[in-house]
Write a structure and sequence with these properties.
Blueprint (H helix, E strand, L loop, with lengths): L1 E10 L4 E5 L2 E5 L2 H22 L2 E16 L7 E16 L4
Antiparallel strand pairs: 1-2, 1-5, 2-3, 4-5
Length: 96
């Protein structure tokens, strides 16, 4: 059994917005948003996998930050967003 879900962190004017299956959450710092996503998605995917009949579940996380170069005087690059892909892999329960 494999289940995959994505979460997206996107920049706003003065904060970052995390998009999860339960809605959006705002954060001041990127690492706070990513840590929250990891904790929330791990628990959510484990629950989903167990409801689907998995007995043992492992959740893997793939993170991809996107930046774009900007012109002189503006800094070297600007943050465009982060895509987090969560993959839950589980073995079926012998009782299922």
């Amino acid at each position: 059994m494999v289940q995959r879900q994505q979460a997206l962190v996107s920049p706003l004017d003065d904060r970052l917005r995390l998009h999860l299956p339960d809605g959006v959450h705002d954060f001041a710092l990127l690492e706070e948003a990513v840590a929250f996503a990891q904790e929330w998605m791990r628990a959510w995917l484990e629950t989903q996998a167990r409801q689907a009949g998995a007995a043992q579940v492992e959740v893997q996380i793939d993170r991809h930050d996107t930046y774009a170069p900007v012109g002189p005087g503006w800094g070297e690059q600007v943050y465009l967003g982060t895509e987090l892909t969560f993959t839950a892999v589980g073995r079926p329960s012998p009782a299922a």
